[in-house]
Amino acid sequence: DKEISKMQQAISSKEQEVIQLQNQLQNKDKELSKMQQQLHQHQQQLQQISSLQENESEQWKKAIETERRRADELQKQLQAMQQMQNGAKDEVLRRNQALEKQLQALQAEATETIDALQKRVQMLERELQNQQSGVSGAKEDVQRLLNELDKAQAELKSAAVERERFQAQLEMLVQELEKNQL
Fold it and tell me: What is the pTM of this model?
């Protein structure tokens, strides 16, 4: 009876961990949705820049600051994922080796995305400096930046697909844990 009680407590503990992982995943879904909304807003801001050349410098500064905030948010997400990984117990880690490998791949992808965003911010800063010294060719630059923004949006959608794949694997883990309980 004591062993059964201990096993039930261990199972309950594992179920709580799975619930926590699911809650964290739901929070990531909300953050992803928020990022998509922000990305849409940024795209609208860039379109306004092309029609309002006299306000161009201020709009560029806002776009750069927004990209910096997005890079910071992605960095925070990466740190949260690392903390979640480090806080997991040994038994869960053994059962989730495949999940851990995928998490590491997501972290690497997030790091690459952060690096790419930081490079874009630097590029936008250089563009802003160029724009402040001469406004000629602004419409082509804005269009190019809109294209880059579209590319970033596509990357964000790809990250969402990866997140869905992660969710499916998490659900498989929950099913496996439930099966092991029986």
Answer: 0.28
